[in-house]
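Reviewer comment 2.1 asked that we show a complete input and output for one of the modelled complexes. We chose the 1-O-alpha-D-glucopyranosyl-D-fructose case, as it is the one discussed in the main text.
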Amino acid sequence: ETAKDWWQTAQFYQIYPRSFKDSDGDGIGDLNGITSKLEYLKDLGITAAWLSPIFKSPMVDFGYDISDFFDIQAEYGTLEDFRALIKRAKELDLKIVLDFVPNHSSNESEWFQKSVRREKGYADYYVWHDGKLDSTTGKRQPPTNWLQYFRGSAWEWNEERQQYYLHQFAVQQPDLNYRNPLVVEQMKRVLRYWLNEGVSGFRCDALPPLFEVLPDGDGQFPDELVSGATEDTDDRNYLTTTYIENQPETIDMVYQWRAVLDDHQRIHGGNSSVLLIETYSPAWFTMQFYGNRSTEGAHLPFNFNLITVMEQKGISAASVQEAIDLWLKNMPAGRTPNWVLGNHDKRRAASRYGTEHIDGMNMLVMILPGVSVTYQGEEIGMTDGEISWEDTVDPWGCNSNPDIYEQYTRDPERTPFQWTGGSNAGFTNGSFTWLPLAADYETINVERELSDGLSHLKIYKALVALRNSSKTLQNGSTKYQALSEDVFVVQRSLANSAIVLVINFGSVAKSVDLSKFDKNRTESMLLLIRSIDSTKKEGTQYDPKALSLDPSE
Ligand code: TEU
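Response of the prediction step:
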């Protein structure tokens, strides 16, 4: 057993800076706010925090539209504030990971402005195309039927340059051209710049659309097939995405970024830094990011199966088993698995799984092998905000209409963090918040859950503590099974010790005989429910042969 590197046993936590903590009363979270709360993360047992983008941006996509990759967004703070954040994090032995957004820049970026003007060195920085002429009307048309993620065409006509440009996200997010070596080199400079500022790695945004298929000899791109999955011809689900997603060149680019990180460590020493990869892709594509026999890739391509499989198949022991199988049975040997319950793009875990299941799901990701990634608020069971059409600001929501925006908008999972039950949930001292608060902040908040008997937060803290200290959880073997439609069991074991989690996803009490699951071990099982449940069930004796579980326990 070789010693594990820091990221293999890390507790990752995603901070959405705009909604975490406001230090200056403008209703928008900021860097000094984050710095002031690093001790909170430390106290939870978190070891690494990933910050959603903090770079200069017109905020059309709330930081995922970057106009200067080398500067900090003024409303979030300054480079000095960032350095102070890194310094405090180092004192607390917390790693800071930044968001790297390679697919596109903002249309307000200097690079794009220069590209529009075809300035030397920048003319081919983006994906430009003349389009085609409609044979009957003689009118100019976009080059292909490709759609953006945020509804509508992925091509936008630029009057000044007299060409279309590609944008797989919003119109204000032109796609960078990775077939141009200048772009590839420029983006590596971005990585090196922030590594030199002391960050411990990157969460790489939106990998599927990084490359598009090569155009044919005449410079033409192929249309995607209409998949017929929806009648809504603006919705990307209307198309199959063979040519605009998951190209092999994308995998190789990630291997090149890994080399940038490893080179940095070789030259400057210090700890290794990590690459986390955001890709909602089939396993055959996702798993390649890890690397192959000869080349190292990303340390952790995010595993979203506990989100996506359960979105499709509902909440049951069988869908949990399917989600876990999908990762563990496809992952190349020797790699580190990971488990994600939510992020700023998905409905809040407590709302999606049901508030009654949030503790069980937090237990699940903490008992499974590898690392887990917590989205801010999951530890207290935050739920979705209710955001009216008038208050909608997410471009995906805004690109629809009042009747259907709730299907698309990501605002509900981005509401301000709930620190207290007081004014504006302790998020800001001011009277304004950039998104309305979720309605339940008076009961769901850190202050209250730290004092409450058996709160989501206390359970979460106990789980992380167990996780950070238990050799069985860090190195043990793993067994899991859906015992019935409702009851799911996971066991980790090392030598004579075993830790077992049994979850009842059903709505009625269940009696479970664990000897059916592992007859050799029944006597030595330590049930996870017991080790975290200090008040409710203290002293309760569990009989592994007839364990009784309340609904949602
Ligand atoms: O998301 C990438 C992405 O592909 C999402 O659109 C994803 O398909 C969807 O949210 C799944 O529900 C990343 C960021 O996480 C997102 O916030 C940005 O809007 C997007 O990239 C563009 O940078």
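Confidence is low (pLDDT under 50) at residues 533-539. We note this here for comparison with the apo prediction described in Section 3.2.
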